Amino acid sequence: MTERKKRILKAIVNEYVMTAEPVGSRTLARRYDFGVSPATIRNDMADLEEESYLEQPHRSAGRVPTDKGYRFYVDALMELKKLSRQKSEFIKKGKSLYKENGIQEFVQQTSQMLSDLTNYTSVVSSPQIEESVFQHLQLVPMSSKRVLLVLITDTGLVKNKIIDLPERISHQELDQLSRFLNERLVGLSLNQISKEVLLELSTELINRISVTLRNLDFINKEINKNNLPKYGKIYLGGTAHILDQPEFNDISKIKTVLRLLEQDKLLYGIMDNIGDKEGVEIIIGSENTFDEIKECSFVAATYHLNGRPIGKIGVIGPTRMEYANVVGSVKFMADLLSELLTNK
C-alpha cells in the first residue's frame, strides 16, 4: 500500500468514526492536504475498495472501512491517544475507592469508570477464583458439628459458608485444625488444593495433632477447582451506550446485542478469546468467534497480580469505534487494577 493510500485510509476511518456517514473524495480533498485532485483520491479509494479495505454501502455514497480496513488501521496507522490530565486524575480516584470498598466492589466500579471514559459498554471480570492463592482459612464454631468456614485469598476474595462436619469437634480442636491448614495450604492456588492434597494432609493430621476429626473432604468440597468458575462475576458498565450508536438503530440488531450482554456464559466465552499476555488485544467484527458479536469490536486487556493473570477488562462497541481512545483507556484501567492488587 502506498503512503498516500495509507493516509487516505486513515482519514476515512477518522471521518467515519466521527460522523457515521460514508466518506467521499470531495470531503477528503477539502479537509485534508493530500496535494492531489479529488479525482486522484477517488481512484485511490477505488483501489482500496478493490483490495477490500473499503466498501461502498450505496452506489451514490462514499466509502466506509471494512473489517480488514479497521484491522490495517489499528495495526499500522493508529496513533494512541494519551489520556488527558483530567481523565487521569479521575481514574486515580479509584485508589481511594479501592481502599474503602475492597476488590469486588472496586472491580464493579471500574466497569462504570471505563464506560464513562470511552462512552461504550464495558465488561470486567472480577479476579479468577481458581487462580487465587490461599491466604487464610478460619473455622468458626456454630455448634458441635456445624462451623462457619471463612476463606480469604490473595486477591481479597472472601468465601463464607456454614458447613456440617462429619463428626463432633471441640472449639480447641477446631483452632488447632485451622492453624494446621493455614500452615500447610498457604501459597497454594485454589486449583492446587485437590482431593489428593487434602488426603495427604489427613494422614499427616493423624501424626501431628490430636484432633478427633480425620476426614478433610469437607474442605475439598468447598474449594475444589471443579466447583469453582473460571472467572469471578462479570460486571457491565454503560449498557445504554449501545443504544447511542447509529449502527444499532435496527431493532433486530439491538435485540441481538442486548441478548449478548444478558448471557454471562457467552461473555465468559468472549473473555476466553482474549489471551493472558501483556498489552491490549483488539478483535474486530468478523474476527469474533461468536455470531452475536460479529458486528461489534471487542478491545480488552488482562490485569495481573504479581505478574499472574487473574481477570479481564474490556470494551464492546461497534466496529466504527474510536480505537485510539479505547485502547489507551483499557490499557490504563488494566494497569491501574494490576497496580492496586499488587501493592494493596
Descriptive account of the structure:
Helix 5 packs across helix 6. By secondary structure, this protein is α+β, with helices and mostly antiparallel strands. It is elongated. Strand 1 (54-55) and strand 2 form a beta hairpin. It has helices at residues 3-19, 25-31, 38-50, 67-77, 85-92, 94-118, 171-185, 195-208, 217-223, 251-262, 264-272, 323-342; strands at 54-55, 64-65, 121-125, 134-143, 146-153, 158-164, 234-237, 280-284, 296-305, 308-318. The model has no long low-confidence stretch (mean pLDDT 83). It has twelve helices and ten strands.
What is the overall number of helices?
A: 12
User: What is the beta-strand fraction?
Assistant: 15-25%
Shape: elongated
Major sheet attributes = 5 strands, antiparallel
Estimate percent helicity.
40-55%
Overall structural class, as computed from helix and strand content, comes to alpha+beta
Radius of gyration from CA coordinates: 26 Å
**Unreliably modeled segments:** none
Topology, number of strands? 10
Mean pLDDT: 83
Order of strands across the biggest sheet?
A: 7-3-10-9-8
Q: What is the string of helix and strand elements?
A: HHHEEHHHEEEEHHHEHHEEEH
CA-CA gap between termini: 48 Å
Please describe the structure with a list of short key phrases separated by commas or semicolons.
12 helices; alpha+beta
Task: Outline the fold blueprint.
Blueprint: H1 3-19, H2 25-31, H3 38-50, E1 54-55, E2 64-65, H4 67-77, H5 85-92, H6 94-118, E3 121-125, E4 134-143, E5 146-153, E6 158-164, H7 171-185, H8 195-208, H9 217-223, E7 234-237, H10 251-262, H11 264-272, E8 280-284, E9 296-305, E10 308-318, H12 323-342
Antiparallel strand pairs: 1-2, 3-7, 3-10, 4-5, 5-6, 8-9, 9-10
Helix pairs in contact: 1-3, 1-4, 2-3, 5-6, 6-12
